[in-house]
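Dear colleagues,

As part of the handover before I leave the project, I'm documenting each prediction I ran so the next person doesn't have to rerun anything. This entry is a single chain, and its sequence is reproduced below.
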Amino acid sequence: MNSGMIGSKWPEKWYEEDVCQVARHLLGAVLVHVTENTVYAGRIVETEAYGGTYHGWPDDAAHSYHGRTARTEPMFQSGGCSYVYQIYGMYYCMNVVTGRAGSGEAVLIRAVEPLSGLDDMFRNRNMDNRTRGPYHLTNGPGKLCQAMEITKSQNKLDLCGDELYIAEPVMRQPLQIACSARIHVDYAEKGKTFPWRYYIENSKFVSRP
């Protein structure tokens, strides 16, 4: 494991900030998933914030917009909980719950730069590491979950635990952060225009809209 790039775990209080603040703060941090056989780690390069309001408009792109359900229950926990859901019946998306209990806010991890467990990531994605580079390995929410073995089994986990967590890099480097409207939320009348997608500018590991 490239432990030289991974520092201490995020404390619970960091997850309790505003969802957009956490979405920006997550850039450059490290997502870690510890399994029985592999320690996966990826530097977060792209996020999207969901929940809350923008200029007074509630976020109708958020799963929590229609209230608490069995599926969205994790979003209404206090910050520092995982929210993993399935899309298209086959892919998973990893979210970091933020804010106070009941706020219904979470940050989608859209892309990471692989740091640890790369051989297993390539195997999990059915990609040949001899002919394909790492740039397309984890540059999307479904891709990174498949590569890092994140499934519904990791839903509603305490992110201050030892299985799935966020860690600071050993040294924070200055980042050029860009923002845009979020991807694939055209169903949301208002939320489709919210500039709540954040990414590290010029990163080769960012997803492609």
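The helical segments are 12-15, 19-25, 118-124, 141-147. The mean pLDDT is 94.

All the best with the project,
I.
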